[in-house]
């Protein structure tokens, strides 16, 4: 009887811990701060500093490129998935970026240019 009671207690305690683990995994990555970003284009990689501000899952920031100047970004991060868009000055074009966050690295693809990567300096 004691063995059955012990097993039942372990099952109940284990079940109580599952929601806490699920909540921890669904927390969004923290990506606020300075990054160095590179975007592959048909004309070669375009590299520059990326500054990200984060409020919960909402992202804002800027990407500096010598060729285009400062481009504003807006997007979201949910878990390890990140997506944002940027208006290209003077080109009447919006680039959409999607990717994943892995610690101090992010990478993914765009809808127009190609792949992109970002690392914390």
User: Tell me about the biggest sheet?
Assistant: 8 strands, antiparallel, barrel
DSSP strand tally: 8
- From the spread of the alpha carbons, the general shape counts as globular
Annotated CATH homologous superfamily: Quinohemoprotein amine dehydrogenase alpha subunit, domain 2
Q: Distance between the terminal alpha carbons, to the nearest Å?
A: 60 Å
Structural class: alpha+beta
Q: What number of structural domains do the residues give? A: 1
Number of alpha- plus pi-helical segments: 1
Q: Can you tell me the CATH architecture?
A: Beta Barrel
- Determine Rg (CA atoms, Å): 21 Å
Write the H/E string, N to C. HEEEEEEEE
Widest sheet, order of strands: 1-2-3-4-5-6-7-8
- Per the CATH scheme, the topology name is Lipocalin
Model regions low in confidence, pLDDT < 50 over at least 5 residues: 1-25
Give the rounded overall mean pLDDT. Answer: 83
Strand content: over 45%
Level of helix content?
A: 10-25%
Please identify the top-level CATH class. Mainly Beta
Write the layout of secondary structure elements.
Layout: H1 2-25, E1 33-39, E2 46-55, E3 58-65, E4 69-78, E5 81-88, E6 93-102, E7 105-110, E8 115-119
Antiparallel strand pairs: 1-2, 1-8, 2-3, 3-4, 4-5, 5-6, 6-7, 7-8
Overview in brief:
This protein has 121 residues and is of the alpha+beta class. The protein has one helix at 2-25; strands at 33-39, 46-55, 58-65, 69-78, 81-88, 93-102, 105-110, 115-119. The protein has one domain (33-119): Lipocalin.
Description:
This protein has 121 residues and is α+β, with helices and mostly antiparallel strands. The protein has a single domain, classed as Lipocalin (Beta Barrel). Helix content is 20%, strand content 53%. It has 1 helix and 8 strands, in the order αββββββββ. The protein has one helix at 2-25, and strands at 33-39, 46-55, 58-65, 69-78, 81-88, 93-102, 105-110, 115-119. The longest helix is centred in the first third of the chain and has 24 residues, at 2-25. Mean pLDDT is 83; it is low at 1-25.
């Amino acid at each position: 009887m004691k063995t059955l009671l012990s097993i039942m207690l372990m099952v109940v305690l284990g079940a109580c811990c599952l929601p806490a683990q699920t909540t921890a995994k669904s927390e969004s990555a923290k990506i606020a701060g300075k990054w160095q970003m590179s975007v592959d284009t048909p004309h070669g990689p375009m590299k520059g500093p990326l500054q990200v501000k984060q409020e919960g899952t909402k992202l804002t920031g800027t990407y500096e490129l010598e060729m285009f100047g400062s481009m504003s970004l807006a997007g979201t991060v949910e878990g390890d998935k990140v997506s944002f868009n940027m208006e290209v000055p003077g080109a009447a074009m919006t680039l959409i970026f999607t990717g994943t966050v892995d610690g101090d690295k992010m990478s993914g693809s765009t809808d127009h240019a190609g792949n992109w990567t970002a690392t914390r300096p």
